[in-house]
Design a protein that fits this description.
About 5% of the residues lie in helices and about 40% in strands. The protein is mainly beta. It has one domain: 8 Propeller (Methanol Dehydrogenase, Chain A), CATH 2.140.10.
Length: about 425
């Protein structure tokens, strides 16, 4: 219980201090800076029908997660047979479709578990940013909050055997795009207002990466963008110029799909394959001001996640594997606190909400765990629909997107909620 109280105190301070938390918005994949952490106090552990604010049947299908700005939820959908990308805007309060914008996309061969609507949008106060790919082109589109095209960029071919996946993020006035693929590769920053290239950094072509970047803010140092990939491992980039600041290129020997997780000066990422051999690598971040290179902190090679991204809060990090194994580690040392099976298969990532972890299995079962160094399953909730997504939490509500539906849960007082 003391550990849980420490975690709650940490998140209260983090929420007050972090420049990424404002108005409880969830503006990118896994929310503020990709942490998967929400300060909301109004999400129930036990659910009944009265806790659903609304349920909405969606046009088409998709594996992208929702993002939120104010009263507007943005997400994407598609027809896997006919192609096309549908950008949907839903009222957070009403649960009603506000508009749908159809963008052209020709169907092509992809991984059977993937979707043409796999990349999660990013949103800021003015625009929502989506990506879609075909073998011949990688398109980034900025729409107004009313669904009108502001700009569109074609970044060239996107060569991969698995299809689309990396999600855009907005940092300051730039849209950051990862484009590490089997063909010519680079990462780039586009001006959020115009779509013009601010910088573009070449990268070595290798196994396509599906990791979404985040920002690392060292004590007393300058912020850096963190990327994961097979070719370059875990590396840091200067946000204004695209200059590579440091790189630990020995991090992975397979494809990187999960996104980087920052726990103090420790940064974690994972790699894997459909045939196994997954492992997690944790490094100590480099420090260019002191000429200190990034170095290996530890690795986890047993029941490690491949697709799901981990959660780090305070001294602890929780790793949720594709095969339903949850591992709790001491974030700095890698000391094992527990490794237990929750069951099911997972492609979506867990989120931390008020001392609990929420993750959704591919069969649509929401599993709720106590977020402590002791393994405890609190609840299970079947939604009975295929799900490859990560929940979003904004305005005190949890939004869950299954393949064909969108659910809104919570937002009311949790008095009497049983843990």
């Amino acid at each position: 219980m003391k550990t849980l109280h420490r975690l709650l105190g940490f998140v209260a301070c983090w929420a007050a201090a972090s420049s990424f938390v404002f108005a409880q918005e969830w503006t990118r994949f896994r929310g503020p800076n990709g942490t998967g952490i929400s300060p909301a106090k109004t999400i129930p552990t036990k659910w009944t029908e009265k806790d659903f604010n609304w349920k909405l049947d969606l046009s088409g299908t998709g594996h992208s997660s929702p993002v939120v700005w104010g009263d507007r939820i943005f997400l994407t959908s598609t027809s896997d047979q006919e192609g096309g990308l549908y950008v949907l805007c839903v009222g957070a309060e009403s649960g009603q479709l506000m508009w749908r914008r159809d963008l052209p996309l020709s169907p092509f061969k992809k991984h059977k578990f993937n979707s043409f609507a796999a990349a999660t949008p990013a949103v800021d106060r003015d625009r929502v940013y989506t990506v879609r790919t075909e073998p011949e082109r990688y398109l980034v589109t900025a729409l107004s909050h009313e669904g009108k095209t502001v700009w569109e960029r074609d970044l060239g071919p996107f060569v991969t055997e698995n299809g689309c996946g990396p999600s855009p993020v907005v940092y300051q006035d730039k849209v950051i795009i990862g484009n590490e693929q089997d063909g010519p590769s680079f990462i780039t920053a586009l001006d959020a207002a115009t779509g013009k290239t601010v910088w573009q950094t070449p990268r070595t072509s290798s196994k396509s990466a599906y990791s979404t970047p985040c920002v690392y803010e060292p004590k007393g140092g300058k912020p850096a963008l963190i990327f994961n990939s097979h070719a370059h491992g875990i590396y840091a980039v200067e946000p204004d110029t695209g200059k590579v600041l440091w790189e630990y290129d020995k991090a992975f020997d397979k494809r990187s799909v999960s996104s980087p997780v920052v726990a103090g000066e420790i940064i974690l990422g994972s790699c894997g394959s459909g045939g196994g051999g997954n492992f997690v690598t944790a490094i100590r971040a480099g420090d260019p001001s002191r000429a200190r290179k990034a170095e290996l902190a530890y690795q986890l090679k047993t029941s490690a996640p491949y697709v799901p991204t981990s959660v780090a809060v305070g001294d602890l990090v929780w790793l949720w594997s594709d095969a339903g194994m949850v591992t709790c580690l001491h974030a700095r040392s890698g000391e094992l606190r527990y490794q237990e099976r929750v069951g099911g298969n997972f492609f979506g990532s867990p989120v931390w909400v008020d001392g609990r972890l929420f993750a959704i299995s591919t069969s649509g079962e929401v599993v709720v765990l106590e977020a402590s160094d002791k393994f405890k399953v609190l609840e299970r909730h079947p939604l009975n629909d295929l799900c490859h997504t990560t929940p979003a939490v904004a305005g005190g509500r949890m939004l869950i997107r299954t393949e064909r539906r969108l659910f809104s849960i919570g937002g009311r007082s949790r008095v009497g909620d049983v843990r």
